[in-house]
């Protein structure tokens, strides 16, 4: 079960822009991530590689946790992400991440957001 301090550390790493580093340090080796109803991606190495690939396409990423809740091994975080790709296209993602923790690491995460939001 994560402590509030551990969760706050995780949030701070994401907000600093080190998304791939957050996965490396805070996820279990067998962790999974799932976008809405899509099939989950499994394995920390797979998750890190995908995150690095996405970030490589961006010129700027802003990440802000608006609120978070810890309830035993379950965590919910309301995130706002503002992404600017290298061609200047911008997208704002208003997302809720629901996580299940094993000890002090995330082993399952599912993201809920509106995938139809157009780029601005």
From TrEMBL:
Read off the InterPro entries from this record.
NTF2-like_dom_sf, SnoaL-like
Checking Pfam families in the record gives: SnoaL_2
Q: Which SUPFAM superfamilies match?
A: NTF2-like
Q: What sequence ranges are listed for the domain SnoaL-like? A: 9-108
Protein name per UniProt: SnoaL-like domain-containing protein
């Amino acid at each position: 079960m994560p402590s509030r301090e551990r969760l706050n550390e995780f949030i701070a790493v994401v907000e600093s822009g080190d998304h791939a580093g957050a996965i490396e340090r805070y996820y279990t080796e067998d962790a999974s991530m799932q976008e809405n109803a899509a099939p989950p991606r499994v394995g920390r190495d797979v998750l890190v590689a995908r995150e690095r690939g996405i970030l490589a396409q961006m010129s700027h990423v802003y990440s802000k946790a608006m609120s978070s809740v810890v309830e035993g091994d379950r965590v919910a975080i309301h995130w706002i992400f503002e992404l600017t790709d290298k061609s200047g296209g911008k997208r704002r993602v208003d997302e809720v991440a629901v996580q299940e923790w094993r000890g002090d690491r995330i082993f399952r995460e599912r993201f809920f957001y509106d995938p139809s939001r157009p780029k601005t």
